[in-house]
Amino acid sequence: MKQKIRTFIFDELIFVPEPGKFSDDDDLLEAGLDSMGIMRLIMFIEEQFGVTLPDTEIDPDNVKSFNALAQWVLGHQK
């Protein structure tokens, strides 16, 4: 799951010079993930993983890193 999300983010949403050195705990918001990117990311995740991520849970803490995203998504998978 993380790899698929990682590929989408680095291919579509933000540029980092060396994606391989970007850890699962590094800050995606500081790297340039903005509100439009977050909305595109949520739509991608919902489509790819068959989950619904509630609007009320869209919070920087849930999208700040790959680990945070994975926990958020896993919490909504059935």
Strand content: under 5%
Radius of gyration, whole Å: 11 Å
The number of helices is 4
Q: pLDDT under 50 segments (min length 5)? A: none
End-to-end CA span: 15 Å
Largest sheet features: none
Number of strands: 0
Average pLDDT number = 93
Shape: globular
Summing up helix and strand content along with how strands pair, one would put the structural category as mainly alpha
Give the H and E element order.
Answer: HHHH
* Percent of residues in helices: 40-55%
Summarize this structure briefly:
The protein has 78 residues and is mainly alpha-helical. Helices cover 51% and strands 0% of the residues. It is built from 4 helices and no strands.
Describe this structure in words.
By secondary structure, the chain is mainly α. It is 51% helix and 0% strand. Helix 1 (2-13) runs antiparallel to helix 2 (35-49).
